[in-house]
Specification:
Elements lengths: L1 E5 L4 H11 L5 E6 L12 E2 L11 E4 L6 H11 L3 E3 L6 H10 L4 E4 L5 H16 L4 E8 L9 H13 L5 E4 L12 E8 L5 E9 L2 E9 L3 H14 L5 E3 L1 H5 L1
Parallel strand pairs: 1-2, 1-4, 2-3, 4-5, 5-6, 6-12, 7-9, 8-9
Antiparallel strand pairs: 7-10, 10-11
Helix pairs in contact: 1-6, 2-3, 4-5
């Protein structure tokens, strides 16, 4: 399977390059990165997707949300299935992906870890039986992460909110607030420090009992492996919009 890798010279891009090179049935035929001269690669690297001349079976985007417009335009023009692993997407970005999925297969998720997506499913199931419990989400990441809360925290919170017909309100920390916690809140707290790869905890706090569901990432490899699984999955799909739930099924 031939792959174009957007963000090939970034932190996650380097992990993907390493793991894909270890797979005998996968080949990176081109890379896309604003820092296109940052590393020596065995494939050509272009500053923008529009400059890419190679053809591929799938494009994996693990870059920055600001590059999505360019990457999506290339995928639509060349009908190349697209795996979007980039976080920090706006509502407009998601609408653009949904619209483009009418013409090609697109896979998007806030987190490529299989474990995180299982955690989200467990949290949704727990919410069905614990509707009167207070729900708090704590996410921890390294000190170089720029977006907060994380895309994964939103993935979990939005999943839980589906159970409540999107009637819950997201609260980000409590600095400056001088009122009691409301029943319709899902609170999200972001911690940044050191080299924490990623940790997400969902807390269900009720009268005299607490339930916690937690996922800890020990290396970035899990996100690369998830992206590869998504690429293999997408390569045999019809036009449409897919996410990790479709892959897990």
């Amino acid at each position: 399977m031939k792959i174009i890798l957007s963000g090939c010279n970034g932190k996650m891009g380097r992990v993907l390059v390493k793991i894909i090179n270890e797979e005998k049935d996968l080949e990176i035929v081109a890379g896309i990165d604003a820092n296109h001269e940052g590393y020596e690669n065995p494939f050509p690297v272009y500053e923008k997707a529009e400059y890419c001349k190679e053809k591929a079976d799938v494009l994996i985007d693990f870059s920055h949300h600001s590059a999505l417009k360019d990457v999506l335009a290339y995928s639509v023009k060349t009908k190349t299935p697209l795996v979007v692993a980039t976080t920090g997407l706006s509502g407009e970005d998601l609408k653009a992906l949904m619209e483009a999925s009418k013409d090609l297969p697109i896979f998007q998720t806030g987190n490529m870890s299989l474990g995180v997506n299982v955690l989200t499913d467990l949290a949704k199931r727990a919410s069905l039986g614990l509707k009167d419990f207070d729900i708090e989400i704590i996410e921890k990441h390294h000190n170089q992460k720029v977006d907060a809360p994380s895309g994964t925290a939103y993935l979990i919170a939005n999943g839980i909110n589906e159970v409540f017909n999107d009637k819950k309100e997201f609260i980000y920390g409590r600095h400056g607030r001088s009122e009691k916690r409301k029943n319709n809140e899902i609170s999200i707290h972001a911690i940044r420090g050191g080299s924490i790869v990623g940790e997400h905890t969902v807390i269900f706090a009720g009268p005299d009992e607490i339930i916690e569901i937690k996922h800890t990432a020990l290396s970035k490899d899990i996100f690369a492996l998830g992206a590869i699984k998504a690429a293999r999955f997408l390569n045999v799909q019809k036009n449409g919009f897919y996410n990790m739930n479709d892959l897990l099924k």
